[in-house]
Design brief:
It is an enzyme of class 1 (oxidoreductase). Involved in the biosynthesis of the chorismate, which leads to the biosynthesis of aromatic amino acids. Catalyzes the reversible NADPH linked reduction of 3-dehydroshikimate (DHSA) to yield shikimate (SA). Keywords: Amino-acid biosynthesis, Aromatic amino acid biosynthesis, NADP, Oxidoreductase. This protein has 290 residues and is an alpha/beta fold. The protein folds into two domains: 125 residues, 3-Layer(aba) Sandwich (Rossmann fold); 140 residues, Rossmann fold, CATH 3.40.50.720. Helices cover 31% and strands 20% of the residues. Strands 2-1-3-5-6-4 form a six-stranded mixed β-sheet. Helix 1 packs across helix 8 and helix 4 crosses helix 5. The structure holds NADP nicotinamide-adenine-dinucleotide phosphate (NAP). The site of NADP nicotinamide-adenine-dinucleotide phosphate (NAP) has 26 residues, from helix 5 and helix 8.
Length: 290
């Protein structure tokens, strides 16, 4: 498959943005610029540093003609909700928006982190066996997306967080939504690890910190055969969590697949073009691509 730019570039310029603070480190411009080129669209993607007090004005600007929408990252994923006209079911359940879609002056909030994670886990070979047990590490926005994803796959979820109260709050919030899938907060030593077929690190532990892990001293041999460790962290490529899992013979993946899929789904919602995930991965220099 050729991943080169499309040959027919449309004449109408279209714009999409990332609003975050900080924004300079973001990999989203690389991915979306590659997608515009591949799709043959005359589009422009720009990462803007938007502090909390500037969010309302930035979001109002998305209603202009020619604007497709925006991605949101820290610290805006939750506060943006109040500024939008409608929410997708995923954004409503998770309580966080990573993608705003502009349609004729109206703004829809969506969350493509959850379906992006679902797809990345499937790509990593995770088999969605009903009733399988999943440990989610963390209790912030990414953990909420992870719990939603696991529940979509009919998995039983254990939430483990550095601050136990936040894990309790997340489990209670989930129960409050009347979900059928069991979601419980727990502590490291109470978790039935021999039944856990998937660990999702949705905490920031390990982010730009190669010696940090959310599971210090963990014995990965407690996990059943075929278990997968999915680390949403993607910098460094191999986190300590992944390294220790692999040393114990447990399969481990970083968060680049999720990052690529959430971008693919956002781009698809903005433009109607489902650009192959390989284009995004190549933009991220994954798989030996330059
Ligand atoms: N791959 C992707 O596409 C993708 C998408 C979204 C997010 N992410 C990644 O997911 C991670 C979490 O994002 P977020 O938006 O949920 O952040 P967040 O809302 O700030 O939550 C951070 C979570 O990490 C925990 N934590 C932070 N440092 C820790 C440490 N040293 N040890 C153990 N736990 C620690 C926090 O625990 P406390 O409650 O105790 O503070 C909290 O539960 C980030 O690394 C982000 O880059 C990746």
């Amino acid at each position: 498959m050729s991943l080169d730019a499309g040959s027919n570039v449309s004449p109408d310029p279209q714009q999409a943005f990332l609003f975050a603070d900080p924004a300079g480190h973001s990999l989203s411009p690389r991915m979306h610029r590659a997608a515009f080129a591949y799709a043959g669209l005359n589009g422009h993607y720009e990462a803007r540093r938007v502090p909390a007090e500037g969010l309302a004005e930035a979001v109002a600007g998305l209603r202009r003609q020619g604007v497709l929408g925006a991605n949101l990252s820290l610290p805006h994923k939750e506060t943006v909700v109040a500024l939008l006209d409608d929410l997708s079911p995923a954004a409503r359940a998770i309580g966080a928006v990573n993608t705003v879609i502009h349609r004729q002056g109206r703004l829809l909030g969506d969350n493509t982190d959850a379906p992006g994670l679902l797809q990345a886990l499937s790509d990593a070979g995770y088999s969605w066996r009903k009733g399988a047990e999943v440990a989610v590490l963390g209790a912030g926005g990414a953990a909420r997306a992870a719990v939603y994803t696991a529940a979509l796959g009919r998995q039983r979820v254990w939430i483990l967080n550095r601050t136990r109260d936040r894990a309790d709050e997340l489990a209670a919030a989930w129960a409050g939504q009347g979900a059928e899938v069991e979601v419980r907060a727990t502590d490291l030593h109470d978790l039935p690890w021999s039944r856990v077929s998937l660990i999702i690190n949705a905490s920031s532990a390990g982010l730009n910190a190669p010696e940090e892990t959310p599971l210090p001293g963990f014995d990965f041999s407690l996990l059943p055969a075929g278990a997968l460790v999915y680390d949403m962290v993607y910098k460094p490529d191999e986190t300590r969590l992944m390294r220790e899992a692999r040393s114990a013979g447990v399969k481990a993946e970083n968060g680049l697949g999720m990052l690529a899929h959430q971008a693919r789904l956002a781009f698809c919602a903005w433009t109607g073009c489902d650009v192959p995930v390989e284009v995004y991965l190549q933009a991220l220099n994954v798989g030996g691509a330059t």
